[in-house]
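Batch manifest, entry 17 of 40.
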Amino acid sequence: MVETNKSISRWAALTVLCSALLLFQIQPMASKAILAWFGGATSVWTTSMLFFQTILVFGYCYAHWLSRWPLHRQIKCHLVVVLTAFIFLPLSFTAPDATTTAEQPASTILLLLFTTLGLPYFVLSSTGPLIQNWYALTQGAGTPYRLYSLSNIGSLTALISYPFLMEVYLDIPTQAWLWSAGYVIFAASMSILGWTCLRQQIDIKTESEHPQPAIQSPPTWKRMLHWSGLAALASSLLLAVTDQLTQDIAVTPFLWILPLALYLISFIITFDNPRWYYRVTMAALTSSGILILSLYYIRETADQYLGTAFFQSLAESLIGYTIMLTAVFFMICMTCHGELFRLRPHKQHLTVYYVCIAIGGAAGGFFVSIVCPLIFTHYHEYHFGLIAGFSFSSLILVRHVLDQSSLKQLAVVIPCGLAFGIVVLSQWKMTQNNALEASRNFYGTLQVERTETNSNLLKLRHGRVVHGIQILDDSGAMKPTAYYGTNSGIGQVFKALEYRADLDITGVGLGVGTLSSYARRGDVLRFYEINPDVIAISNKYFRFIEKASTNVQITAIDGRLGIQSLQSKSTDLIILDAFSSDAIPVHLLTLEAFAIYLDRLREDGIICVHISNQHLDLTPVLHAVCKHYNLDLRIINSKETADTFDAQWAVITANSDVSSTIDQSTSAITPTITKPVAAWTDHFSNLLQIIK
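Output type: structure tokens
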């Protein structure tokens, strides 16, 4: 029996590890495979996570239901399900209908993922709790919870390997084939584990040779709600923190994976052994971390009070802010998951325990992905999550001193109360705005505001970045502003093209329609804008389109798909300006995307790309694309004025005569690339190389 137990332990560990690797390889792989079809929106990842978390709930419920059967029936039934999932292999992602994608992106993503990988993911989701239950039935005194820690180690390995190995060296179809092969290996491992148990008749021998443990009372509803609540808090903050990172940097697997990796590391540490979770110490660190982050959000007041410029300098550092944000998130996860492990039940009830954790995780995902866009006009769930995290960690500290001296109680309660007030005021301030109108949908957040210094200017803010300004007075209503002034790169290009009549202009990204001010009578101007709220707001509050000299065509569709719908060699000027907040639309800057642009562009045509960005230098990316297609690249920089911003535009053409015209008529320069990067493709992009 000892040898059999060792054999089962080895195969159980191998199977759990294999399933975890596959589970967390498919998440970034599938999300990246469909990203371009949904406009590169930040919500692609959060909606995908909702799918994965929901299927995880069904997998855990299936494992809980199956655990009620005798062991030999569990094995036979589950192996049938494992083998049935082969009908989904090899994985293949097929583009959905473009109209449905634009009108119902969230439901389209959920349906697409379900039909592509639903059953294999369901099987893998059920593996952890099911094998832990088999382990508990066959290994007597052994603890199954370490298998959960091992599972999270496998998950973390998969996540880390994806952006640094899989994404770099393999395209999506090759990744899908490799994943499918991995599923075959998993199925073989699961079959050997089941065959080993059946061959030794483990469940029969266990019943006859070992006394049955005393039946433990089932967990109460209060305890189960506690489990789900802790899981929901960590899960909702996982997605909220991911949104914070991706809306201002880029929608890319690396930034999806960073918060998720920290989330899993907290599981690994807390579920490995009770000695790794120091309850009071971690609660104190969590409370302090959230307090410091809250001071950062009121940094002008905090720096003035403290007599330093610490928080303001931190705001100017992308890496510093990212480290602070993710460190606080990790502390919150450690507290939530440490409490989850501290409240774990007897192993007789481990499947219901995991079901409650999965339900909480899915509830957090549903709240952020579905509910929050309906009830909030900004990413308020992040700030409310910080308040909840501070409240919970402070409650741990207060409860710890309830049975101690009054002096110790005051030493804890008073600082916690004062800090709670600062946290609430700071986070509440972050949720307030003076917008004339605010909206949030799948594609991000929008706010229409009057500028602080000049009430005659109306601006549209997308996330934290201004995406358009208009002068309210009729005398200046059609003056190009913001990044599009007459001295900007795009303004200089339009001036250089004045000699051409009847231009065909294609814009990707509408903003407030500022580019309409450059269109002349006889020109054709069309915009492709994926966000319907942008179209509604630009028509309601801004007059660029209404006052344009030509009829402006606006289509609600992803810009790349819109350009693809044009006839070959049909447009003179393509303008790419489709940024959500400061995030990079990676799918618009790939070799595949430029192949489409060049095919639709006339021989003397120009591509202008707005590359103003606080954090990333996109010039090397465009240089790599131009080198691949033998194109000329110029950069035009312009300085801020009263109603314009610092702006950087890239001008690209395949025509040497046009390049000469641009050189002579504008302030364009030929960029010097000191650190060349590989060209981005639909299956490869690397942000780390272009951080400023």
